[in-house]
């Protein structure tokens, strides 16, 4: 670090010289690190290297919609709410604000990390997914566009240095919390390329992404943390050195829960070889990861070059963040960052306004401040500003009640929560909250100092437990659906259970990794047992107070209703001029990380509230504030006004009030389909959106509200839609789409012009319509604007051609649609592409990869080998069917070679399902065979597959074709028994 002689001028080593190319600096630093120092850098908590002046470094700072887990910060709407804005410009500015606050917070607390784990780009394929709130949309184009905008804001505008290093979550095909670390998403090639990869691809190519995080689940039988797609796809989209950070605990899952590898040394080696660079495991204890990496080296599973590759990527990210630049880092000056600035507050309000979606309006809205009398604002979310697991702490808050009172005056706003007021009695007396249970908040900071993981934050034990006495305490019981409820004391604190098992009125809100504030009543004789959700235990009466224990000690409670919530709502609604009912979810209950929803229905108690309010006052508007869609067909049919907004952050209430009173014309648009019923959805684990006809792309039914839907207080007309193909830098040219949008209504407003494409008469199933471009544009009353869109032809019209294993654009007729939603199409223009007809499958030359089917029934995709490749196996039954269209057998195919594996004579090879006892008229239960026939029923061959000694041990079985097929035919393949089919080869 200094010259050779005392007093010699100091020279900085090359890695600290910002004038040098980034790669040269990283190479220099890498050579200075010892092997042990390099290995230590592979853990999330990389230690300092004091001899080189390197500080400790932590990958992973949560910042999905504001800086999370590190105390107060500006809280923006949930990601799904940002998706509802359909505004890349707004989302970019929010990303920039979040990045600035990360830098500002780091200036006073070096534990704040600059490697930001955001955004989440998992597609909102199924609205029952517990983490629906974290994604932007069900559409890959919209998701990728917004993710690119958010990462651009996080990254900053400096050409070389990054404000923060954004990392996309969660690679790949991850939409279920149910058994999320052991379930496998069966993703056929078309869905992989057209849907799941597409969401990541556009954002990565935009150039502001530093890396990705693999998801907990498996894809096609292989854990995402050893996914070959990291190398085969992700790293081909950019020349940047992307960093892959594991999800928390996932490296250990490779052995502990997934049993994919026999030892942790094998697991960590496979993850490194696949491209994982940083291991988030065992919190701050790096010793286990270091030991496993050393063990993998000693066993020869990897060599030092594999470690060097991962460390080089990590050092490249750190160098780009300016860590080694000293005063030359353009973001080092805290004055360049902002925290809780007036601009950030205004941005939070703008986001809250833009996220509101007007689903229905029969003229009730907007309300008039001068003519509106008393407003009753009712419901369990009417005076709430809810946070979620990835929120920061609120610096300020605005609930609907607070915002309406600030606007109209407290005397014109009546608030009723709508929860039942209850008392609980046991044989020994009434449940009561001790009078001293209102102490100041304390006792939580120690956990935060010890760990940056909020899951380790302990509940309070400084307050006295609930007791039994002669005088009851009235408790507010809120129904969150599924038999789950919370109880709140008059102090405003929720009943919760700490590590010592006692029940206290101690929680400000439900929350935590394991929510300790939920309960369920189980009928027991004339009373109920009170089961605690967090522990699964039952409340009993101990000498010191109420405590959770096993069921044998459970106390019987009798519930006495002091007042029903709907009665209080009815009184308030009847006395008011207008009613605003605010219902929805608590983001920590019934639908969150680790927990999927079982239903799309509103909780029964909440459903009764809107019905009660409307019966008492027809001027009732329902506001759904939630992390996900609901099936509310009755409400949509009965009420004059219906709105939805995600949990809108610190300015949620003010933003909603400004929309209700017409200060802002609503322009939010649904980022996902709202279905009429969960009966419209396939199984939660069915990832094949094409076969299951899922999302707006393929759904054949009538949604309650379609993708892209949202109303306004004004009207917009669409005219003069045109489309033409241009020759430009894109490989197949681009589509130039133009249309005119006019605000023909009574007020200023934003319109979201949406451009879709369809391919009528396509040779393969294509989406009904697919979003290819959009623009959110502000138009004054009477203003007219010409909108121009340019979309590469291959992106707009292409699809993955499984017949030839490539992205392709077929010739033929296409339709370009412009409109206000996927269902509200205003103008259509046709486009015809010339070209030779698509060629059939050249099966004699290329054979057939089993995974490249056109259609299937009863099969799942599995891993052909642990490192790479897919195979096909039967699903829950012992029979599966595949269809390969347009197979060209030329002058005749005389033989077929089946490449398949069979683990045992009767065991399963599809990752756990046992296929016993089913014969279906074919092979016996202890046999396995592959049958081939043509579409007209002509049999070609039945090929028996012998046991091969393992699921990854493939054999090639050749069979003659007595009736050689000639020309082009559809080929039907039936799998029977416990086998894995990898490939079919043909001879002619």
What does this protein structure show overall?
The model is unreliable at about 1-10, about 440-450 and about 905-925 (pLDDT under 50). The longest helix is centred in the first third of the chain and has 21 residues, at about 90-110. Helix 4 (about 90-110) runs antiparallel to helix 12 (about 340-355) and helix 9 packs across helix 10. About 20% of the residues lie in helices and about 25% in strands. It is an alpha+beta fold. It starts with about 20 loop residues before the first helix and ends with a strand. The strands form twelve sheets. Strands 15, 16, 17, 18, 19, 22, 23 and 26 form an eight-stranded antiparallel sheet that branches. Strands 1-2-4-5-7-10 form a six-stranded mixed sheet. Strands 11-29-28-27-12-14 form a six-stranded mixed sheet, with helices on both faces. Strand 28, helix 17 and strand 29 (about 640-645) form a beta-alpha-beta unit.
Please give the radius of gyration in angstroms: 30 Å
- Unreliable stretches covering 5 or more consecutive residues: 1-9, 441-450, 906-924
End-to-end distance: 71 Å
The chain-level mean pLDDT equals 94
| Spatial shape | globular
Structural class: alpha+beta
Would you count the extended β strands for me?
49
- Fraction in helix: 10-25%
- Proportion of strand residues: 25-35%
Q: What count of helical segments does DSSP give?
A: 21
The main sheet comes to: 8 strands, antiparallel
């Amino acid at each position: 670090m200094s010259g050779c002689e005392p007093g010699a001028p100091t020279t900085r080593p090359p890695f600290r010289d910002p004038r040098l190319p980034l790669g040269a600096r990283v190479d220099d630093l890498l050579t200075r690190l010892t092997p042990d120092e390099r290995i230590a850098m592979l853990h999330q908590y990389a230690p300092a290297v004091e001899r080189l002046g390197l500080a400790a470094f932590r990958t992973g700072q949560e910042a999905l919609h504001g800086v999370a887990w590190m105390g107060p910060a500006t809280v923006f709407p949930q990601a799904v709410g940002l998706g509802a804005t359909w505004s890349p410009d707004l989302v970019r500015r929010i990303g920039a604000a979040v990045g600035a606050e990360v830098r500002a917070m780091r200036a006073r607390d070096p534990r704040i990390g600059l490697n930001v784990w955001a955004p989440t780009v998992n597609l909102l394929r199924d609205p029952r997914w517990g983490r629906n709130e974290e994604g932007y949309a069900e559409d890959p184009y919209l998701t990728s566009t917004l993710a690119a905008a958010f990462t651009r804001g996080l990254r900053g505008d400096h050409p070389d240095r990054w404000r923060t290093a954004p990392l996309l979550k969660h690679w790949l095909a991850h939409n279920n919390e149910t058994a999320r670390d052991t379930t496998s998403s069966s993703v056929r090639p078309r869905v992989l390329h057209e849907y799941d990869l597409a969401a990541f691809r556009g954002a990565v190519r935009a150039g502001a992404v530093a890396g990705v995080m693999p998801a907990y689940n498996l894809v096609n039988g292989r854990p995402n943390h050893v996914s070959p797609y990291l190398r085969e796809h992700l790293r081909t989209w950019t020349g940047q050195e992307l960093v892959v950070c594991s999800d928390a605990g996932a490296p250990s899952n490779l052995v502990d829960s997934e049993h994919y590898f026999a030892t942790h040394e094998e697991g960590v080696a496979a993850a490194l070889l696949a491209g994982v660079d940083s291991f988030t495991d065992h919190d701050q204890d790096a010793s286990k990861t270091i030991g496993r990496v050393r063990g993998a080296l000693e066993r020869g599973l990897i060599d030092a070059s594999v470690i060097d590759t991962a460390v080089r990527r990590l050092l490249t990210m750190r160098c780009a963040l300016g860590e080694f630049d000293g005063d030359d880092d353009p973001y080092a000056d805290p004055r360049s960052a902002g925290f809780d600035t007036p601009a950030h507050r205004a941005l939070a309000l703008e986001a809250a306004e833009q996220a509101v979606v007007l689903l229905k309006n029969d003229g009730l809205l907007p309300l008039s401040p001068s003519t509106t009398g008393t407003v009753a604002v009712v419901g369990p979310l009417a005076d709430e500003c809810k946070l979620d697991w990835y929120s920061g702490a609120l610096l300020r808050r605005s609930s609907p009640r607070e915002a309406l009172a600030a606007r109209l005056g407290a005397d014109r706003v009546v608030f009723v929560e709508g929860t039942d007021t209850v008392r609980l009695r046991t044989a020994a007396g009434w449940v009561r909250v001790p009078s001293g249970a209102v102490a100041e908040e304390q006792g939580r900071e120690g956990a935060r100092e010890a760990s940056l993981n909020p899951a380790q934050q302990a509940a309070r034990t400084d307050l006295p437990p609930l007791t039994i006495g002669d005088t009851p305490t009235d408790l507010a019981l809120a129904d969150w659906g599924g038999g789950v409820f919370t109880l709140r004391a008059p102090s405003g604190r929720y009943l919760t259970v700490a590590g010592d098992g006692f029940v206290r009125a101690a929680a400000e809100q439900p929350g935590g990794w394991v929510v300790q504030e939920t309960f369920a009543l189980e009928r027991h004789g004339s009373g109920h047992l009170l089961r605690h959700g967090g522990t699964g235990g039952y409340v009993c009466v101990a000498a010191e107070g109420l405590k959770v224990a096993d069921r044998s000690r459970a106390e019987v409670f009798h519930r006495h209703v002091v007042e029903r919530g709907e009665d209080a709502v009815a009184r308030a609604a009847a006395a008011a001029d207008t009613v605003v009912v605010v219902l929805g979810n608590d983001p920590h209950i019934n639908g969150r990380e680790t927990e999927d929803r079982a239903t799309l229905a509103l909780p029964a108690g909440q459903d009764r509230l809107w019905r009660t309010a409307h019966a008492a006052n027809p001027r009732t508007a329902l506001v759904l504030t939630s992390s996900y869609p609901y099936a509310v067909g009755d409400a949509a049919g009965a009420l004059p006004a219906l709105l939805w907004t995600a949990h809108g952050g610190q300015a949620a209430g003010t933003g909603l009030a400004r929309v209700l009173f017409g200060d802002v014309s609503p322009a939010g648009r649904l980022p996902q389909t709202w279905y009429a019923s969960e009966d419209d959805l396939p199984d939660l684990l069915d990832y094949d959106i094409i076969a299951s006809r899922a999302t707006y792309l393929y759904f054949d039914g009538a949604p309650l509200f379609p993708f892209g839907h949202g109303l306004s207080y004004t009207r917009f007309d669409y005219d003069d839609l045109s489309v033409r193909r241009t020759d430009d830098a894109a490989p197949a040219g681009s589509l130039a789409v133009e249309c005119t949008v006019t605000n023909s209504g009574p007020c200023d407003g934003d319109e979201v012009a949406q451009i879709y494409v369809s391919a009528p008469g396509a040779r393969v199933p294509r989406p009904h319509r697919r979003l290819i471009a959009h623009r959110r544009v502000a138009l004054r009353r009477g203003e007219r604007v010409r909108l121009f869109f340019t979309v590469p032809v291959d992106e707009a019209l292409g699809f993955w051609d499984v017949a030839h294993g490539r992205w392709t654009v077929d010739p033929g007729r296409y339709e370009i649609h412009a409109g206000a939603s996927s269902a509200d199409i205003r103008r259509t223009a046709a486009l015809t592409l010339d070209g030779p007809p698509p060629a059939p499958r050249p099966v004699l030359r290329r054979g057939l990869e089993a995974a490249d089917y056109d259609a299937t029934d009863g099969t799942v995709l599995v891993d052909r080998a642990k490192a790479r490749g897919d195979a096909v196996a039967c699903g829950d039954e012992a029979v599966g069917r595949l269809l390969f269209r347009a197979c060209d057998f030329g002058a005749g195919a005389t033989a077929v070679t089946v490449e398949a594996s069979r683990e045992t004579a009767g065991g399963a090879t599809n990752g756990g399902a046992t296929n016993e006892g089913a014969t279906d008229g074919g092979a016996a239960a202890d046999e396995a065979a592959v049958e081939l026939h043509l579409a007209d029923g002509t049999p070609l061959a039945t090929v028996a597959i012998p046991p091969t000694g393992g699921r990854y041990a493939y054999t090639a079985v050749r069979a003659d074709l007595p009736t050689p097929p000639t020309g082009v035919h559809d080929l039907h393949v039936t799998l029977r028994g416990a086998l894995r089919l990898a490939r079919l080869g043909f001879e002619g």
